[in-house]
């Protein structure tokens, strides 16, 4: 009887070890949460990285964003932002604030703002928009 109980305990321990090994194995897969194009790689094949460390940077397919550095105290009174191309000012688009960083950049006192472009009128993502006389680049 003692041998049976000992064998059952050993089986439970082995199953626990198997579950832990399967969990550790699942951490070796890198899965993107969105579809896009890999723009940079921060790790080499076989390199060990800590959890949460960036390994790839992905440019997301779909809606376009303009990233700009703006001065606080806050967002504009209206959410719509008028944009125009730096290289061709008559080409215009309308944007909206998608994301605003809670941190102020200590070097220049600005906050990073992502502006979603509602109607980019077929403008290439490599072109540059300007907003309020400041140059901004697509994200």
Automatic annotation (TrEMBL):
GO molecular function: efflux transmembrane transporter activity
Gene Ontology CC terms: efflux pump complex
Domain of life: Bacteria
Official protein name in the record: Putative efflux pump membrane fusion protein
Record lineage: Bacteria, Pseudomonadati, Planctomycetota, Planctomycetia, Pirellulales
